[in-house]
Amino acid sequence: MTPTEPKQAATVLLLRDGTPGLEVYLLRRTRGMPFAGGMTAYPGGGVDARDGDTEIGWAGPPPEQWAEAFGCDERTARELVCAAVRETFEEAGVLLAGRAEGAGVGGVLPSVSGDDWEEQRLGLLSRELSLSELLADRGLVLRSDLLRPFAHWITPPVEPRRYDTKFFAAALPVGQEARDVSGEADEATWLSPAAALAELHAGTRPMMPPTTHTLGQLEPFPDVAAALAGSPPEPLHPISPTFEETPDGRWAVLPDGTRIRMVVALPS
């Protein structure tokens, strides 16, 4: 059979400095979801066609720089960065955008609490509103300088649902709080990478191989500053695992030989 063409997608490792050190925001997808139901993941999702709108206000590394980082064309890069910002607002209530006059490193980001913001978040979610329309209405520009390229995974050809997913890392902006607003998750929590992986190994927090692997990449960093400074070098190499069945379970095998045990979602 001809493999399904993977859809472009973006996901964001939203980071903060907590009491135990570096923490990452995690969502547990509802068990009824057609893809990765019951699995723990980061905020993210597929690209919307309007994410490529060229009139969107923009501050930070331009689309051509992101295209070089992810090995794609400029239009796709623009869509991916916009999708990362849009999905983070849709699924966590965190908006990586700033006032046009305060754009750039150190610029103040707005508070996004209040009923009017929630109405616009829901408009994005229903696709009645595009990201460019929201930003223009608020006099904001997208802050690509708040994002870092982190990883690039492609669902193996044997899977019926395939995604070409770019992973970004970003610090939780000062004055904003991640909120459990995603209709696709039944739990949202901040955990240290080590704690999340410990729950995975205990069998209480199933997750897909990309989540397992990127948590392992985060684990050595003591804080957000170190994680953002230590993001993988550009350009990133896409990872598309193969699968291996053994007497002790099913494994995802990465191109470098790393083996990640496949964990099924817990029963309802």
Topology:
Elements: E1 7-18, E2 21-29, E3 40-41, E4 44-46, E5 58-59, H1 63-70, H2 74-92, E6 97-99, H3 115-126, H4 131-138, E7 140-143, E8 147-154, E9 163-171, E10 185-191, H5 193-201, H6 209-218, H7 224-229, E11 242-246, E12 249-253, E13 259-261
Parallel strand pairs: 1-9, 5-7
Antiparallel strand pairs: 1-2, 1-4, 2-3, 2-10, 6-7, 8-9, 11-12, 12-13
Helix pairs in contact: 1-2, 5-6
Describe this structure in words.
- There is one protein chain.
- With 268 residues, the chain is an alpha+beta fold.
- It has a single domain, classed as Alpha-Beta Complex (Nucleoside Triphosphate Pyrophosphohydrolase).
- Helices cover 27% and strands 27% of the residues.
- The protein has seven helices and 13 strands.
- The chain has helices spanning 63-70, 74-92, 115-126, 131-138, 193-201, 209-218, 224-229, and strands spanning 7-18, 21-29, 40-41, 44-46, 58-59, 97-99, 140-143, 147-154, 163-171, 185-191, 242-246, 249-253, 259-261.
- The strands form three sheets. Strands 1, 2, 3, 4, 8, 9 and 10 form a seven-stranded mixed sheet that branches.
- Helix 1 packs across helix 2 and helix 5 crosses helix 6 (209-218).
- It is globular.
- 40% of the residues are buried.
